[in-house]
Amino acid sequence: MPKGIFTRKVREVIRVVGPSIAYVQLTQGMYSRIDEKDAEYAGKHNWLALWNPKTRSFYAVRNVSLPGAKRRSELLHRVVIAATEGVVVDHKDCDTLNNCGYNLRSATAGENCRNRRTHQKNTAGLKGVRFHDHTGKWQARISCNRRVISLGLHATPELAAKAYGEAAKKYHGEYARL
Predict the structure, then answer these.
(1) Cα-to-chain-centroid distance, residue 73
(2) What is residue 114's predicted lDDT score, i.e. its pLDDT?
(3) Dist CA 111 CA 95 (whole Å)
(4) Is the pLDDT of residue 6 over 60?
(5) Protein fold of 5-107
(6) What Cα–Cα distance (Å) separates residue 58 from each residue in 15, 31, 88, 90, 149?
(7) Which residues in the chain are classed under CATH 3.30.730.10?
(8) Which of 83-92, 106-115, 144-153 has the lowest mean pLDDT?
């Protein structure tokens, strides 16, 4: 956790570390990075670090009580950009605890998927690259509009990753994850 001063004496949950950056304390000893302008709202609530096994990452979330003893969850990144129902929020750098405004953008579900990290079962360690057993070469593939496009077989994983990167820029634009 970066050094800084606490902005509130009563509840030490917000730490301002610069002219525009603050950290919100979560459970499990974790913190979420936010803009200083959002610190006042975030400091009024208790935030949890919630693990999402699908994305293999933590999210800052709080429970909201509703009439009739009902509850719902509120995700900090959705609050920061005032996302409406049905809008997907994408973390540009894939760090789900970096909830600064510059790192968040509205996206469709497909655009959000394009910005995913490498799949956990990917043995090559490079997005869009896999070893092709029958040829002994590295294959590059990309998904676009629910179709898988083969980008050819390559001698090295680096060459296959380069082919994927070029195709990702072409098909995925600003949502390309290289």
Answers:
(1) 18
(2) 79
(3) 16
(4) no
(5) Homing Intron 3 (I-Ppo) Encoded Endonuclease; Chain A (3.90.75)
(6) 19, 10, 17, 14, 32
(7) 115-175
(8) 106-115
Average pLDDT over residues 121-138: 86
Q: How far apart are CA 151 and CA 160, in angstroms?
A: 8
Cα separation of 70 and 64, whole Å? 9
* Dist. CA 7–CA 24, nearest whole Å: 11
Confidence of residue 123 (pLDDT cuts 50, 70, 90): confident
Cβ neighbours of residue 169 closer than 8 Å, sequence gap 6 or more? 176, 178
CATH number, span 115-175:
3.30.730.10
Give yes or no for residue 10 having a pLDDT over 50.
no
3-state secondary structure of 46: coil
- Taking residue 126's Cβ as centre, other Cβ atoms within 10 Å add up to 19
Burial class, 17, CB count within 10 angstroms (exposed 0-12 / middle 13-18 / buried 19+): middle
Q: CA-CA distance, 90 to 95, in Å (whole number)?
A: 10
